[in-house]
Write the structure tokens for this entry.
Amino acid sequence: MKAWRWLKDHAIAIYGGLAIAYMLVPIAVIAVFSFNDPEGKFNFTWRGFTFEHWSNAFGIEELNDALSTSIQLAALSTVGATILGTLIAMALVRYEFFGRRPANFLIVIPMATPEVVIGASLLSMFVYVGVATGFATLLIAHIMFSISFVVVVVRSRLIGFDRGLEEAAADLGASPLTAFRTVTLPLLAPGLIAAALLAFVLSLDDFVISAFNSGQTVTFPLFIFGASQRGIPVEVNVLATILFILTVMAMVAVVTQQRRADRMSAVRPD
Amino acid sequence: MRRRRLVPYGLLGPGLLWLAVFFVVPMFFMGIVSLESGSLSEGFALTWEFSNFGDSLSSFDTQFLRSFLYAGAATVLCLLIAYPLAYAIAFRGGRYKNALLLAVIAPFFTTYLIRTIAWQTILADQSPAVDVLQFVGLVADDGRVLDTAGSVIAGLTYNFLPFMILPIYASLEGIDKRLIEASKDLYASARSSFWRVTLPLSAPGVIAGTLLTFIPAVGDYINAEFLGGPGQAMIGNVIQSQYLVIKDYPVAAALSFVLMGVILLAVLAYIRFAGSESLMGEEAK
């Protein structure tokens, strides 16, 4: 009877734990299979443990090229989307203006459109206008689909922003530029970094829109898709595991930084 | 003062222009392409071929129907998994809240394709997971999991689950806990307090989550590609192959338009039914 009570009291926590485990299973599978020693070309069944593919992580040239293309693309699109998205978020939170509803609609609608439609429509335009697809068209597309997500993240950060701190800086004789540099930017930084990280991950992860607009350019996901027909090299699992660990570390750093910024802005008399 | 009024437009300008030129304008071009006729070798010409719409819809109605069915099933499953999990994190998470949220978005940190291929590994014939399912009797002894509707729906459910969890979590987290306490002070049982206070207050999160899960799931083709067989092709697979393999641009464009239109109708109907303006974090101002 006691056990039953305990189970009833903790049902929701147990359910949550199981759900979290379910979400992490494929990640564990990816990591475990990076140590696999497959017999044929297909890395689907467990054959034996080896470090071979970890020591050869960067041994496949096309894979390295694809990954470096993806990282360059993600870096450039992150810079573009973060700047454009932050400016939009500033306008939405800090100003009253005519046309807010259509502006909001234009920001929300790309997030509510299936990727296959976005990819197909962009390709329609490029084909119609006669623009050759390649790295440049990929960059255009990646900035486009990242902007909305940056706006959402930065806006939520700006809404909780205490403008009194900026005013205090001005009262203490800071010029608008100094106030922005010494007060606004440090407080906004965690939000900007979180938004940039999101844009980076979105770009690195994108397959569908890229598949339509890549031309001859091969990104990391496009390489994996191409390789899936003839057997994906184990090194893909290795690189995926490395990327996963790096992103988690970056994410933890952002969360810690955000907490620090929150504490910083909390230090003021009420 | 006049100059200040222009500031927001200056801030909005570059970003919104980018969205207009590379999101809205392409839709117009796709509209033109969908009304063309011809072939890749002879070239396409605009002939206002409205029959493209009817033709493509009638040739691929099975895939359309299947997409909505699969996406609907995946959305329901996501809701069933996500709500209790979001509830557990919001109300029982304590100091592990951030760590749990990190676990929720962790799947995003491995490429979408690799995640789906991991499920291919997990659900492959003779894998331990399939052995268990066969042992329990959920799958026939000689049955397969891969290349069935079930595996595609499972893949969709897995891949879009965070989109359901995060909005629900956000709205649960935003509930004023005093309202729940008040209902208990007024002698509501735990159950009726949940059904009459907590659940209605978290409705905006449920609505946003449902849309954010359903819409991408309808257009998805990765899960059907890797986890389904030829009998599980969704409309995304058709659009993809018409565009990139067969290169029948007008048919592919018409299909994309119909998909977009049907989704828009479904969303509008849903919003009317659910009656909420708090779509996708667009807070009332």
User: Anything to note?
Assistant: Chain B has a mean pLDDT of 82. Residues 2-34 of chain B form the longest helix (33 residues).
